[in-house]
Amino acid sequence: MKNEKTASRRDKNLADIRERATKIAERIVLEQGGGALNARGLAKELGISVGSLYNAFGDLEGVVRAVNARCADRLALALRTGLAAADDEARARVIAIGEAYFDFAYSEPRRWYMLFERDSDLQLDVKTAELQEGLLEMLIRAGDGDPGNEQHRQFFLLLWASVHGLVSLACRPSIVMIKPEVARHYMHDLIKAAFRNFPETAPS
Q1: Nearest-CA neighbor of 97 among 115, 113, 85?
Q2: φ and ψ at 201, to 5 degrees?
């Protein structure tokens, strides 16, 4: 009985650390950027040791994954909202998803950066993989495609990659930047051209 109570108390303590740490880490990311997030600083704000933080998350990347899960939920909501308001036509639905993706990146660049641009050397964790697969399936179905059809998957992956590249050049500092209003216009043209130019892989 004593061991059960001890384990329960420990689990509750770790859950409390995870909840508080995720919120504080998210605030740090939004205010200062992902590069400002470090274990020592986060533990200090929480009033705990780095060891206690690692007991709750495993390592700093565990904290990052927790923050990214919250970012992913906000992105998914934004895309679903955009899709729900779109005209009932495949190309219009895909454009609506593209616009919602663009608007999310432009209005919440640090959340978007954490999800897609933070560190390409990190292994793809399960939560991020599920997010990306979910986004791809949403896009395929919106375009009247079949998620089980490999040609459709490749077509929409290419389309997503193209839109993502355009968003990257419009929404983050780089040597070559595209004005946001110009990027939105090109995004419409890009999606329309994709549906015209790849009839052998695009759904009818």
Answers
A1: 85
A2: -115, -25
Q: Which domain holds residue 164?
A: 68-204
In a domain, 200, yes or no: yes
Total domains in the fold of the chain:
2
For 119-143, how does the pLDDT look when each residue is reduced to its tens digit (9 = 90+)? Answer: 545 566 677 778 888 889 999 999 9
CB 180 within 8 A of CB 106: yes
The span from the CA of 143 to the CA of 168, in Å, is: 23
| CB contact at 8 A, 141 and 203 | no
Q: How many CA within 13 A on the CB side of residue 183?
A: 23
Query: Is residue 63 in a domain?
Result: no
| CB 72 within 8 Å of CB 41 | no
Report the range of poorest mean pLDDT among 109-123, 127-141, 178-192.
109-123
Residues 6+ apart with CB under 8 A from 23: none
Reading the block at residue 128, the tokens are: 């991020």
pLDDT, one tens digit per residue, over 40-78 is 999 999 999 999 999 999 999 899 989 988 998 999 999
Q: In this structure, are residues 40 and 11 in contact, taking their beta carbons and an 8 Å threshold? A: no
Residue located via tokens 């599920």: 130
CA pair distance 16, 62, nearest whole angstrom: 15
Q: Is residue 175 part of a domain?
A: yes
Q: Which of 98, 80, 83, 107 is nearest to 187 (CA)?
A: 98
